[in-house]
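To whoever is on call:

I kicked off a structure prediction for a single chain this morning and the downstream step that reads the tokens threw a length-mismatch warning. I double-checked the sequence; it's 76 residues and nothing unusual in it as far as I can see. Pasting both halves so you can look.
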Amino acid sequence: MHFEQGSMTYRTPGIKEITPNSWLEVSPELAAERGVTTGRYVQVDLAAWQGAGAGAVSERVKGKQLYMTLNSVEEP
């Protein structure tokens, strides 16, 4: 994750190479329901927020939940 769209973290050597883009982690349950597979581009639209990124089906997220980085370098 890059704080403030990378304005500070991009100044740290190596950070941009490790996490160059935003991503989403999607629970296996939600992925199966929505047809999400690892590597697929996913768009998230909520009443107060929108975001997008490459999806990754992950056991680290449980139930019908997802995790997304707080800030997006591509879409601040």
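Update from on-call: the warning came from a stale cache, not from the record. Cleared it. Sanity check on the structure: The first strand starts at residue 23 and ends at 26.
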